[in-house]
Amino acid sequence: MTQDRTPAPDAAPASPAPWRPSRTVAVILAGGTGTRLGLGIPKQLLKIAGKPIIEHTLAVFEAAPEIDEIIVLMAAGHVPDAERIVANAGFRKVSKVIEGGDTRNDTTRIALDAVGEGDVNILFHDAVRPLVSARIVRECVNALWSYSAVDVAIPSADTIIQVDQDECITDIPVRATLRRGQTPQAFRSGIIREAYRRAEGDPDFAATDDCGVVLRYLPGTPIKVIDGSDENIKVTHPVDVHLADKLFQLAAAQVPKVSGHRGYTEELTGRTIVVFGGSYGIGHDLTELARRYGAQVFPFSRSTTGTHVERAEDVSAALKTAFEATGRIDHVVVTAGILEKGALAEMDEETMDRLLHVNFVGPVTIARQSLPYLQQTKGQLLLYTSSSYTRGRARYALYSATKAALVNLTQALADEWAEFGVRVNCVNPERTATPMRTKAFGEEPEHTLLSAEAVAQASLDVLISELTGQVIDVRRAPGEPVVAVPAQSGAQASEQMPTGIDA
């Protein structure tokens, strides 16, 4: 629809006084039922990256300093589900969770009634756009100082065609003038109320979004468009679930870093960290870093403490040792793992059994034994995968399979343990200079490898974050120095974390 900027005779008069809203309200539209996803629950309740989609969305507006109040319009019959999510997450800005209408327009009218009278900034946002950024929210609110209506959109990367009833092209609009609409859509309350008041008298009224209502019934009102983002997708179809999950993974790769030594010390002092596989490589460096920042760290390994991660009794004894010494366990880190190369058909049963048990049964055993301790502290379990989890590699098929299994384990446990307040994440480092890697692949150019200390530092950032259900990629920054790691032999080398091997 093309907007006519010529003022209509009945267009709303320009406000003679500066806009002075009493507050800014975010209205989260969560009325979808998930039919296109083929789900038995509304799509906004589907979990992505360890949390319901609506929780991710609400968290953005809860954290936005520009937002004073949040009202949730929920699908019929699921208001208690949304109320539970709000209560568990501790969202203080959410003032109401109410049932939405049968249509988008009905839901907007209900929302306007819930907001009440007075001059208010109102942002309408789809609950199933969980990747909306703080920047978009801020720019929408700021634009309302100059404009009465604001939309969010991105340029169309595709050529748009118009067709007739026979599916034949009738027009190809100039792509440079086209945008793909997103949310939020923001309004001065008087404008959106007036647009809907006028729409009520139109028997043919039907609109898919609120800016369309303003465009049609208040044609003299400029609608400002601010830049959206490619990541601000709407979860509508099954493929969107996978895309959103991957986008959360990519976003999680940029874990906010604490400022300086003092910041890490404040976060880690008094915490107890148990590291399985903590004698060499990443586990060793993480142990040393965490101790430097004041944490009490208990490293366990096969070579130094006789701890076999696949043995429940060994894991139980290790956790008991740490707990009895400090009275708490805040984080459990599993860097233990082995890499055995060779064609599957040629691998002996003893080797296969050892690889599967250490790389997968071990983390599962540790997870089960750690939960009671982590429940007490609302702590975190941290696992490690490698880039081979996305695609199996020839000559280390079982290794690749176990790394993929750990990613699935991370995501599943994040869901299972959310009710306990326990977080579960997985670090995915690129090729890393560790003794195990040197043993398996020989000497490699140092500038191509990530340092174990860099992975350890990134791991600490994850541990002190609020992330859960994430696969965090760790990549080497240009010019980063690489720590030379001497090759180890035998059991020592096989205990190291198999870090992000790219074949």
TrEMBL record:
Domain of life the protein comes from: Bacteria
Pfam assignment, any one: adh_short
Question: What catalytic activity does the UniProt entry give for this protein?
Answer: 2-C-methyl-D-erythritol 4-phosphate + CTP + H(+) = 4-CDP-2-C-methyl-D-erythritol + diphosphate
Swiss-Prot/TrEMBL keywords = Isoprene biosynthesis, Nucleotidyltransferase, Transferase
Hey, which pathway is this one from? Isoprenoid biosynthesis; isopentenyl diphosphate biosynthesis via DXP pathway; isopentenyl diphosphate from 1-deoxy-D-xylulose 5-phosphate: step 2/6
Q: List the residue(s) that the UniProt entry marks as the site Transition state stabilizer.
A: 36, 43
Q: Name one GO molecular function term.
A: nucleotidyltransferase activity
User: In this chain's numbering, which residues are marked as the site (Positions MEP for the nucleophilic attack)?
Assistant: 175, 234
PROSITE patterns annotated for this entry?
A: ADH_SHORT
Q: What is its EC number?
A: 2.7.7.60
Q: Which family does it belong to?
A: Belongs to the IspD/TarI cytidylyltransferase family. IspD subfamily. Belongs to the short-chain dehydrogenases/reductases (SDR) family.
For this protein, the record's NCBIfam families field holds:
PRK00155.1-3
User: Which purpose does this protein serve, as stated in its record?
Assistant: Catalyzes the formation of 4-diphosphocytidyl-2-C-methyl-D-erythritol from CTP and 2-C-methyl-D-erythritol 4-phosphate (MEP).
Q: What is this protein called?
A: 2-C-methyl-D-erythritol 4-phosphate cytidylyltransferase
Species source reads: Micromonospora halotolerans
